[in-house]
Specification:
Layout: E1 4-6, E2 13-15, E3 17-20, H1 31-43, E4 48-50, H2 59-68, E5 77-82, H3 98-112, E6 117-122, H4 131-143, E7 147-152, H5 157-170, E8 174-177, H6 192-199, E9 202-205, H7 236-244, H8 247-254, H9 257-263, H10 267-276, E10 281-286, H11 291-298, H12 307-317, H13 326-330
Parallel strand pairs: 3-4, 3-10, 4-5, 5-6, 6-7, 7-8, 8-9, 9-10
Antiparallel strand pairs: 1-2
Helix pairs in contact: 1-2, 1-11, 2-3, 3-4, 4-5, 5-6
Length: 338
Amino acid sequence: MVAFRHLGSSGLKISEITYGNWLTHGSQVENDAALACVRAALDAGITTFDTADTYANTKAEEVLGDALAGQRRESLEIFTKVYFPTGPKGPNDTGLSRKHILEAIDGSLTRLRTDYVDLYQAHRYDHATPLTETMQAFADVVRAGKALYIGVSEWTAEQLRAGHALAQELGIQLISNQPQYSAIWRVIEPEVVPTSRELGISQIVWSPVAQGILTGKYAPGAAPPAGSRATDTKGGASMISRFLGDDELLGRVQDLRPIADELGLTMAQLALAWVLQNDNVAAAIIGASRPEQVTENVAASGVSIPAELLERIDAVLGDSVVSDPRLTDEVSPRERLA
């Protein structure tokens, strides 16, 4: 069963394997399959579910709400996000303005079929809206009982520090950041993680298996396997393409197999266990198109990787690891997307 960790310095505990539906529900996976995956997650002890209003242009929230219907609400932690365009994608259907946040939370709650979310997250930093306006709107959402805690996604160390200070002034808790993080994508380690530890903020990491690269299914010089994310035209292929052309990286990933075998893990389990060795990581988000994938991934919970094997992983991956902290800032658009 899944282990639990505190989220930031709060009293909230979440399952360290969290189920997310970014590239699946409402797009890649039919509703029946999505329901089966959520049931497999619940059966495995996962209680934390992450989504966003922009996923499949709001359909992912609807599917998750349907899948969780009938479950005891108090036994779940439901997370969603606001920022990216939704609906008809008008000028105010995006960003972190007061108007968009207060309208977006009501839409999310309706689709998720709940009165509140446990964590409401800024999906990116909004350079077009004053941070004071954004944080005041989040504070009002919390005071209205529509969210219990506030989080962000892909914020830099400087942005986290400024947002945390305003949250404290407003009497609300900013307790999490949701960045991309894996054994080959470590841009949060130099600056974001040390700052987060200082502020009492945890990481809820997405793409811990690097969109499937760390499963080892993609061999250098070979065509992607049929039915894999790299062959999916609904979003998966575009996300994974930046890694597929790097045969050196793909070869080094293959060299991780003996380490996985030594630990009695699959490659996917090794990738998940690796991110969970970082004590600033509260959870690794997994996605699934089949229930068996959920069952496999959950087995990474509670795994301890000895220091000498962590060093071997670093040696194998070598300079294929991306760790430039400046890359975090690049993922937040300078202008609103509409």
